[in-house]
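in:
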């Protein structure tokens, strides 16, 4: 599955890395504009989440902090796609393309290490089907989940993680 032209992405001729869960593709010029646009669209949903839950921090996704190059073996320090057309049982995947995004990270414990990262899951029909936005702000972790409802992407839940436990703050 090298092409997702209906979604606005193509992977033909782009080097990839095999992963047990699918193929990993770095973000190259041809895919960068659409990917950045989709990622930056999430800021409006973070604003909506903040209206529903006042403990959502003010930090948002900033393109100047995007990292496009893999710097370590970790999968959490750059923007990449995962193409996974089939489930582990061989059935067609509901979300055959996932865009993982992150911003450059500061060392843990740094007081300015406010982060926003997550994943965008695309449906076969080219629309965004689900999103998970993870926000660190002043040492507090929030998880904002978006889902399609009546063919519209909405904030479906907001959770906090404290001492390893998830606490539901909002559910649509």
């Amino acid at each position: 599955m090298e092409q997702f032209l209906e979604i606005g992405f193509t992977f033909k001729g782009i080097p990839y890395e095999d992963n047990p869960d699918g193929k990993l593709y770095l973000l190259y010029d041809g895919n960068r504009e659409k990917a950045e646009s989709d990622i930056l669209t999430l800021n409006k949903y973070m604003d909506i989440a903040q209206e529903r839950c006042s403990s959502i921090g003010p930090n948002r996704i900033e393109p100047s902090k995007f990292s496009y190059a893999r710097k370590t073996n970790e999968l959490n320090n750059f923007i990449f796609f995962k193409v996974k057309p089939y489930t582990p049982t061989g059935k067609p995947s509901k979300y055959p393309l996932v865009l993982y995004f992150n911003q450059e990270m500061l060392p843990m414990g740094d007081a300015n290490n406010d982060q926003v990262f997550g994943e965008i899951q695309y449906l076969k029909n080219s629309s965004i089907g689900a999103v998970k936005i993870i926000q660190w702000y002043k040492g507090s972790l929030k998880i904002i989940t978006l889902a399609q409802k009546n063919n519209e992407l909405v904030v479906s839940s907001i959770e906090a993680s404290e001492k390893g436990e998830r606490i539901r703050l909002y559910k649509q």
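note: The CA atoms of residues 129 and 148 lie 6 Å apart.
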